[in-house]
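tool=predict chain=A
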Amino acid sequence: MTQNCSSKYVNIIGNISLMEAKTNSIIGNSSFDNKKYHFSQSSFDLRKEISNFKSWGNQEIEKRQVELAKLAVKRWKNKP
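tool=predict ok
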């Protein structure tokens, strides 16, 4: 996260990405610019998409959260 992020965005789904423990240990709390490389090398499309953002702050997290919500509704439709 960058300084453009408020603490309320730390643990919301738009700011969370699944990753291997080894990669997570390597990137830790480093800058978004440093993390972008690792995201771009991911075999997971949802994580790879994060590398397309130019910066990472409240607006980007909210945008990703909306997109993840749309994906979830589409993927897990409520069947009668």
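Helices lie at 21-27, 32-40, 45-48, 58-75. DSSP finds four helices and no strands in the chain.
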